[in-house]
Amino acid sequence: MLPRSRCLVGKLISCSFKSSIRFAHCAPSAATIHTTATRLGDKRDSATGTFLRINTNSENATPGSDSAAARQQVVDLIRSYERGRTLGQGFFTHSGLFAAEMQMWKRSWMFAGFECQIPDVGDYFLYSIGQDSVIVLRDDQHQIQAFANVCRHRGARLLTASSGNIKSRIVCPYHKWCYNTRNGRLMNAQEMEENGDFHKSLYSLQPVQLRRSAGLLYVSLSNSNSDANPSATHQTQLFDFEPAQKLIDSELTAYRLQDAKIAHSVTYTVKSNFKNVWTNNRECWHCAGSGHPEYTRATYDTSFIYQTAANNQTVRVLDPQHPRSSEAAEVIQYYNEHLHLPCSSDNSFGGEGWFRVTRQPLRRGFVTESVDGAPVCQKMLGQFDQQGKSLPLELRNKGSLRVYTFLNFWMHVSGDHAVSTRLTPIDETTTEARVDWLVHKDAVQGQDYGLDRLLLFWKRTSEQDWSLCERNEVGVRSSHYRTGPLSVRKESGVVKFLDWYIQTLSRCI
Question: How confident is the model over 235-268, as pLDDT tens digits?
């Protein structure tokens, strides 16, 4: 019999939400929850009766695993997870785990970049993860395409610059094979005509799955054509993008990020495992005190706690004991009734548990996420821009719209600017974090905004987070590290993320 504290995830997180926030709802059926109950390696929680799905089919073996024993070690590690506690040390030090995690990343929908990065025909940027590189480009019909950055001749990397313009053709620098940007078809292959069995139609670039949503671009390296290799189940897509797209479109479209521009980017190398980065992100308990002084002055995030609702789901609510809770309640009401902007304390992940869009309130007197609450850009984003007309401060306040998609993206959008963070795992101890600051495409630096003021709030907040993550990374690798309990009131967001991580990872081994 397992201890009651060892609660194993048998379903993706699903919550009921307040009417002031739109979420995609997708509750798994009983058959879904119990479908793997009899498989070898599944465990049942004695308190809830739910199961953790641990796949044991041989066709799901992690690529690169040399033996069943190596794979079994990863299975055993997953089975060691105890709900409500931090991850065991093996989740950060086991040599075989990272390969399975990379499969989880590649089979998920990964944020690659913004439409506004490629406004003109031939514009492209690269997104790379592990050994894979993806070309995201705008073709000669102004459509956005994604292809594997690999020549079909001898495998050379086609493009090496992180961004640029290639007009209407992709030309391999090795032997000059030439590809159409519209469909990736091979157009020219010098010196191949005498090969009697050579047909250009067989050597198009490999397409990469691409989805668009309100100016955001997502890619997936999963196998889009499972019929071509039915046994390669480790390559199939983990999640349906449509529910996430519907929610993101409904909330983010008004900001018209496709008509924005990236004013500045900073790429950080964070000496921390990506899981430590995410668990740091999924709670703001650390924000109080010395954690994030600028952030706590601008938001009410430290005023919230988690409670169990009548439907037995955990939701975030205002802490009645917090000194700012009454003020926060008034501001939330003001957003809903006077600004007509849906706003709530809840921050749950809907659907399959990997995406979320919510509007959170800014502190009274703040109209944007800045160190003093005053605007950082005179031009507003999207439909809020008044074409040069000066908006009263009250109407510049759009709150903080927050978009999250596991495993690599979060973004805070104010009325006058947006700041996004894209994560990419480098290895077991290193995560790349690219932070982008976006403003209206017509905003002029030095006239409508200054970089120093635009960057200050999130540059400080991000770097504070990276320091905390690196400190935590060192600790979890110590010989003295042991798992610890997570606060029900303050860290239920961490618990939900870890539940989702374990459930998703178990599908990739």
Answer: 788 999 999 999 999 999 999 999 999 999 999 9
Cβ-count burial of 63 within 10 angstroms (0-12 exposed, 13-18 middle, 19+ buried)?
exposed
CA angle 129, 133, 135 (to 5 degrees): 130
Which residues of the chain fall short of a pLDDT of 70? 1-67, 224-234, 386-391
| Angle, vertex CA 261, rays to CA 259 and CA 266, nearest 5 | 150
What are the structure tokens assigned to 9, written together?
């995830």
Pull the structure tokens for residue 313.
Answer: 């789901």
Q: Residues with Cβ < 8 Å from 79, sequence gap 6 or more? A: 41, 43, 52, 54
According to the model, what pLDDT value does residue 390 have? 65
**pTM higher than 0.90 for the full model?**
no
Buried b (16+ CB within 10 A) or exposed e, 229-246: eeeeebbebbbebebbbe
pLDDT at 288: 87
- CA–CA distance from 35 to each of 28, 31, 249, 318 (Å)? 11, 5, 33, 37
Residue 41 identity: G
**pLDDT, tens only, 318-372:** 999 999 999 999 999 999 999 899 998 888 887 789 999 999 999 999 999 999 9
Q: How many CB atoms within 10 Å of residue 188?
A: 13
Give one word for 130, left, alpha or beta, with left for phi > 0 and alpha for psi -120 to 50: left
Q: Rounded to whole angstroms, how far apart are CA atoms 428 and 101? A: 10
What's the Cα-to-Cα distance from 301 to each of 259, 281, 306, 444, 467, rounded to whole Å? 30, 12, 12, 32, 20
* Rounded CA separation 19/31 (Å): 29
Distance CA 360, CA 344 (A): 6
